[in-house]
From TrEMBL:
Residues 354-451 form the Fibronectin type-III domain. Gene3D superfamilies: Immunoglobulins. It comes from Pedobacter endophyticus. This is Fibronectin type III domain-containing protein. The keyword Membrane applies. The keyword Signal does not apply. Keywords: Membrane, Transmembrane, Transmembrane helix. It comes from the Bacteria.
Length: 1280
């Protein structure tokens, strides 16, 4: 049987208070109808009575109760009478679902935050107020600034006023906020809060006096993101047997149920892809393949039956699930980490490895025997054996527990009574499959079995207490027991980890599995036990000891993840060892402590033995020392002498333990074990000599992951690899690259610290015995094109000053030169990546990196650009501020267009340079984070001195050229690729055009600076102008286009787009009339925004005029819908003829409601079509936008039409538009797909995709078929 030692499982108790003086006192007060607030005060009297009782006194409060309550009541009235009364009542309301994106609280159409203000002061019928906002959480605090302009809120007495959405926008503006716990730059990047509990508080402030007119009122919420689903079956790498009738179950577990937003609608987007290239990691192949089957469902189980796409035996498939939450209004929510995407799992659809047959289960004496028959087609037992998997049926979303065997049966011991289990058995036809990371087993269907009995059986619940004993008839002792064997103690299985014969029985250690503790393995020890031939315990005791620190849990290891920590840990162990041996007396407690000390030191020995900085010979010496040390501790813990002979203690009161034991011998063996400290220090010195200073715990990969080497070469590491983080100076080393890793087999590869930017990166070298060995060879093959990569972004947290590393997932268009080196070597250089990508993990350094910028430089400095400008900066120690002065070179030619004097330019440049120096703590202090997005904006990460130079270059260029620097946008400029700032050519064209109209040229410097440094300004302005194109100019005014078309002959997209941007400004001036842009725009920012809006508005007017079939109200409503973004403008173009045709057939103009139905159909059809293709809404060089594209194969236009309701002329227009608008050979310029389409042209055949409901009509209409043949267009069908 299993028994527990004394003082086991001590359960603390909590006083209930029933019958206590407190509860009695409160009961009496409740009977007297005493107010709750006075009951709280009275309860203090009860506590006071308890204290007196504890000292031996009895305090009778009954005679005084009435008077005391009266006194407390008067005190409460007095306090309440002094409470301040405010004239304004503020009630903030947070509306779920809650969002971490602060922009959601003032954007969109659905309220997420509302503040109700009520003027309760009837003596002041009108109050003018503004708000003061506080957003306070554990990790971040935001407070609106005073002293800036906010719109005035006028409150009429007694009338509540609701403030929400756009009214709150000024309070969330980055320039109007003070920050704590989060930096201004972090907030400016994405306006996102860290996860946690937040209070949104508001006060009303009188506009003219600044007086607080309300209490600080709050609304609170816990705001967090949910984890994406966990995939269950098929398990990763599984093989699925093909069947005559396809029947495959996919199952996943949601992880949003505990989220505050979990109550909102959740759908699951299931995606299945066939993997053609099996030579690369399945995760990488998944991202370069079109979906085979994609569907959105609400349940967490999906059945692929005969009605779904049929899978091909022998092929590999991968699947993924994305969780998508929507609000009650249908808006998609940002509620999940990783955008809701689960891990990618894959399986092989097998026809040549069948699961076993005739699977049966039988339950006897608390154990379950499951047997089966091999499938004849497998020719007996498969090479990899069998795997039995089981789990509780009620926890069908949980992980499987596995048993591997080469036999046709398996026995389960640790199942709970009164419980139903699911199980399945699989065959593995791959030799050596048992124990590898992914499951290549072909499983049977899921079966069930039931364990009879009471689920509350005390043998299970009481963690090993067995009552009564089980009668065992077999008393024949087993002849051999080995490490790893399983024996039964009662109904509990015990796994043996150490065993040896002892006095006719067995002694050793092991662990027992406790299902109620989540299958925890609890350590046990035994001595002199008897086990029969059926591996059942029939005599003796197996003990398990309770430890409040849970050290009894088996396989719990103290983690020594780096040498620095290991050395410190070993020094501490040696100190503890000496203290222990000095005080050792041989008591039972000392014996127990000796065994524990040995186990603790073994962890350090085992960790050091894995170090790549020791030679094999040194590791062998360590093993020998570890064995000798263990013998010493075993001697102190046992009853043998130093020669291994068992001894018996002498009896008598004067015979001390130390008189008859070889204690000195044992202590000497322990004391001599000093190589562990010597070799740990030696390994640490070797690590430092190689320059590999690790700063953070390693990160273990949970999936195959693709990285970039410092030479910009891609490579993929398998699941369970570890990546390492080093102390490197990112002003010299490539940021974003991986510098070191360990493979699952323990081989450790690292960079050579001399491989820095500008030199040759020689690859990752294996670290063996403290020296660099052979270079890592990557034998994977990779395709060119888009792939998901993970960047290692190192930075210093401005708030905590901690070194941190972010694993950021981003999409990269892989080129041939990134896959041309198996050794991942080449010239090391910086590369660009989006720091706002999907952050998979953030790792914080254990200690600050020693390679830091020098101490804060307060010395004056000067930057000279000969013939351009001179910048001087100095630090004022009294104000603790920097001041910069930028002067233009007197010989620098001023552009004739510029009317301002040099002083105006110099003032603007000096102010901006001063602002940046103070923001970044001087010339060589902090750095701004780099910016790189798919729109074409790029800003290098720069320190203060680099920003001063960038501002000087910008200002001097505007003075000389009256335009933004050409190297910002013109790819022909030699300095374009090395420019610290780059912008889309279209944007700079609009900016250059507006400044010619406004003529306030210093503003152009401010525009360039603001766009480079302020994400909100950049986004807002780009949103206004990004839809300007050659096509939109032509749509807005054919006459203007004809006059200017001679300008549009360049075959270089950046030249063409810059020209289009400038001409757009002229067109808007023509539209506005006298005074042009200058009349409506006070500054360049307003002008840029106005140009974008006016062009689009004019295009809308021209477009809507063509809708002859719509009534006046429909046209007006349609323009409003386009402006709000509810309808795609290109969809309006597509449906214009269809609306007109339907109106003719009806004999009247269509109403707004009828048109909305058509447009909703078009929108929905486009949305569904985009799910089928990888590349959608592909922009061409002339601004036209193709619906979908399969490079080199299909040029696809999509129309949600009903052919039977339109004229043949309209159908012909669709075909003509497709072939003329998207001519083969036309250059592609689609920024959202990065450089993947750079220098590429349209290639392939033409396809018109229409709803499947048209198939019968089209195939029966010879006229329509002839038209399609005439234009050489193939008709495709897509279900709506």
């Amino acid at each position: 049987m299993i028994k527990r030692d004394k003082n086991k499982f001590v359960v603390g108790s909590t006083e209930s208070g029933v019958g206590s003086p407190q509860s009695g006192c409160l009961s009496q007060l409740q009977k007297r109808n005493v107010a709750p607030e006075n009951m709280q005060k009275a309860s203090l009297l009860g506590r006071l009575a308890l204290h007196f009782q504890a000292m031996g006194f009895t305090l009778n409060l009954k005679p005084f109760a009435f008077y005391l309550i009266t006194i407390f009541g008067l005190l409460a009235l007095g306090l309440n009478g002094q409470a301040q009364i405010y004239p304004v009542q503020v009630t903030p309301v947070l509306v779920p679902p809650y969002s971490l994106n602060t922009s959601d609280y003032y954007n969109g159409t659905t309220e997420r935050l509302a503040i109700v203000l009520t003027n309760t002061d009837l003596q002041k019928p009108v109050l003018s107020v503004r708000l003061r906002m506080y957003i306070e959480g554990q990790n971040a605090k935001l407070q609106s600034k005073d002293g800036v302009y906010y719109p005035t809120i006028t409150l009429d007495a007694g009338i509540p006023q609701r403030i929400s959405l756009g009214d709150l926008a000024p309070y969330f503006n980055v320039d109007n906020l003070n920050f704590s716990g989060i930096t201004r730059s972090m907030y400016a990047q994405n306006s996102k809060l860290p996860e946690g509990f937040y209070s949104f508080c508001f006060e009303a402030i009188e506009v003219y006096t600044g007086q607080v007119l309300s209490r600080k009122s709050c609304s609170m919420a816990y705001i967090t993101l949910s984890d994406p689903p966990l995939l269950n079956i098929p398990v990763k790498g599984e093989s699925i047997a093909s069947r005559e009738v396809q029947n495959i179950i996919f199952q996943w577990t949601p992880r949003n149920l505990g989220s505050p937003n979990g109550a909102f609608n959740t759908e699951y987007e299931f995606t299945l892809k066939e993997l053609w290239d099996t030579g690369i990691a399945p995760e990488a192949a998944f991202h370069s393949t079109q979906p085979l089957y994609q569907v959105t469902v609400r349940p967490t189980t999906l059945l692929m039956g005969p009605a779904e796409p049929q899978l091909i035996p022998g092929k590999r498939y991968a699947w993924r699930v994305r969780a998508v939450s929507t609000s009650p209004m249908g808006e998609q929510l940002d509620s999940y980490r990783n955008n809701g995407f689960s891990e990618i799992y894959w399986f092989t659809y097998q026809s040549d490895c069948r699961p076993p047959l005739a699977i049966n289960s039988s339950v006897t004496s608390g154990r379950v025997t499951i047997s089966w028959t091999p499938d004849p087609t497998n020719n007996g037992t498969p090479a990899g054996g069998y795997t039995l998997q089981y789990r509780e049926r009620s926890l069908s979303g949980s992980k499987w527990y596995s048993v591997n065997t080469l036999e046709n049966r398996a026995v389960l011991y640790d199942l709970k009574p009164g419980t139903t289990y699911e199980y399945r058995v699989g065959s593995s036809c791959v030799a050596g499959n048992i124990g590898i990371g992914t499951d290549q087993t072909t499983y049977s269907d899921i079966l069930t079995l039931e364990i009879s009995g009471n689920p509350n059986d005390t043998r299970t619940v009481n963690c090993g207490m067995i009552s009564p004993e089980i009668a065992i008839a077999n008393r024949t002792p087993i002849q051999a027991l080995n490490q790893g064997d399983l024996i039964m103690a009662g109904s509990f299985p015990v796994k043996i980890t150490r065993v040896s014969p002892s006095g006719g029985g067995w002694e050793g250690e092991g662990y027992v599995t406790i299902p109620m503790l989540g299958q925890a393995n609890v350590k046990v020890r035994f001595s002199g036990i008897q086990v029969n031939t059926e591996r059942q315990l029939f005599a003796g005791v197996i003990e398990t000891t309770y430890d409040p620190n849970e050290k009894q849990i088996a396989a719990v290891k103290e983690i020594y993840d780096d040498l620095k920590g290991l050395v410190a840990g070993i020094i501490n162990l040696i100190k503890k060892r000496e203290e222990f041996t000095d005080q050792y007396k041989g008591t039972a407690a000392d014996k127990k402590a000796a065994a524990e000390r040995n186990a603790e030191e073994d962890k350090a020995y085992d960790a050091l033995a894995q170090s790549p900085y020791l030679t094999d010979a040194e590791k062998k010496e360590l093993k020998e020392e570890q064995k000798s040390k263990a013998e010493g501790y075993a001697g102190l813990a046992g009853d043998k002498d130093c020669d291994g002979n068992e001894i018996k203690p002498k009896k008598g009161p004067y015979n001390l333990f130390l008189d008859y034991r070889d204690v000195d011998c044992f202590k000497e063996k322990i004391a001599k074990a000093t190589k562990i400290k010597e070799y740990a220090e030696k390994a640490r010195e070797r690590e430092k000599s190689l320059g590999l200073e690790e700063t953070a715990h390693s990160y273990k990969l949970t999936k195959a992951t693709t990285f970039l080497s410092p030479a910009n070469k891609i490579f993929t590491l398998p699941t369970d690899s570890k990546i390492f983080f080093y102390c490197v100076d990112y002003t010299s080393f490539v940021n974003g690259a991986l510098y070191g890793f360990a493979l699952p087999n323990g081989d450790y590869y690292a960079f050579k610290p001399r491989d820095i930017v500008g030199s040759n990166f020689s690859g990752y070298h294996k670290v063996i015995g403290g020296t660099f060995g052979e270079a890592y060879l990557d034998n994977n093959t990779y395709p060119t094109g888009k792939q998901i990569l993970t960047y290692i972004h190192g930075f210093t947290d401005e708030t905590t000053n901690e070194n941190k590393y972010q694993l950021i997932e981003g999409e990269l268009d892989v080129t041939a030169d990134q896959i041309d080196s198996k050794y991942l070597s080449g010239k090391a250089h910086d590369f660009e990546y989006d720091t706002n990508g999907n952050i998979v993990a953030t790792v914080t350094a254990k200690s600050p990196c020693k390679i830091k910028p020098q101490k804060k430089n307060t010395e004056p400095f000067e930057i000279n650009s000969p013939g351009k400008y001179t910048a001087k900066a100095k630090f004022d120690k009294e104000t603790n501020k920097w001041t910069a002065e930028v002067k233009l070179d007197p010989n620098l030619a001023k552009n004739p267009k510029i009317e301002q004097k040099a002083a105006a330019f110099e003032k603007q440049m000096s102010e901006l340079a001063t602002e940046k120096l103070n923001e970044l703590d001087g010339p060589n202090g902090k750095k701004t984070q780099s910016v790189s997005d798919t729109s074409g904006f790029y800003v290098k990460d720069m320190n203060g001195a680099e920003w001063v130079r960038t501002i000087g270059d910008l200002g001097s260029n505007v003075w000389e050229e009256a335009a933004l620097p050409k190297d910002y946008w013109n790819e022909d400029e030699v300095s374009h690729k090395t420019s610290t700032v780059r912008m889309p050519a279209l944007f700079t064209g609009v900016g250059d055009g507006v400044i010619e109209e406004v003529t306030e040229y210093p503003q152009l410097i401010k525009l360039g600076y603001d766009v480079a440094t302020k994400e909100k300004i950049r986004t807002a302005l780009w949103t206004s102008v990004k839809n300007i194109s050659l096509e939109s100019i032509k749509d807005a005014s054919v006459k203007f286009y004809e006059e200017k078309k001679a300008n549009y002959t360049s075959n270089k997209p950046y030249i063409l787009n810059h020209t289009v941007g400038k001409d757009a400004v002229q067109l808007v001036s023509v539209i506005i009339g006298v005074g042009g842009i200058k009349k409506v725009a006070g500054n360049i920012d307003d002008g840029v925004e106005k140009v974008g809006k006016e062009i689009i508005s004019e295009v809308d007017d021209v477009l809507i005029k063509q809708l002859d079939g719509a009534d006046g109200l429909a046209k007006k409503s349609l323009k409003e819908a386009i402006e709000k973004g509810d309808f795609d403008k290109e969809l309006v173009e597509d449906l214009t003829n269809e609306v007109n045709d339907i109106a003719v057939s009806k004999g009247r103009k269509l109403s707004w409601d009828e048109i909305k139905v058509l447009f909703k159909r078009g929108n929905d059809f486009n949305d569904k079509g985009r799910l089928v293709y990888q590349f959608n809404e592909v922009n061409l060089v002339d601004g036209k936008r193709l619906d979908s594209y399969i490079p080199g194969k299909e040029i696809v236009s999509r129309k949600a039409t009903t052919l039977s309701k339109i004229k043949s002329e309209t159908f012909e227009n669709y075909l003509k538009e497709l072939t003329m608008k998207y001519q083969k050979g036309k250059a592609i310029k689609s920024l959202k797909y990065g450089k993947g389409f750079e220098n590429k042209v349209l290639e392939g055949e033409y396809f018109l995709e229409i709803p499947t409901s048209n198939k019968l009509f089209f195939e029966g209409s010879q006229k329509f078929k002839d038209l399609a043949k005439k234009y050489n267009v193939t008709i495709k069908y897509l279900d709506e």
